[in-house]
Amino acid sequence: MHYPIPGNLQEMTALNEHPINEELVAAAIAGVIQISRSQGQTLEDVRQMVLAEDDLLDTSTRKWLSEIVGQAWDNLS
What is the pTM of this model? Predict the structure, then answer.
């Protein structure tokens, strides 16, 4: 199944209706990048959000995700 890259918060939220798999996660990451760019945010802004403390991900997972977001940011340029 191919997921469209979300272009707004409503489309991003709609991803919750699907089972989680690699393709869905990739679409979500691409959507975050697309939405962030449309709002004038930088890669560093997005990385800071990913690295912020939360109850969902541990520190090592947030660091790993930050690296993935950086790679995706570069590839989607």
Answer: 0.87
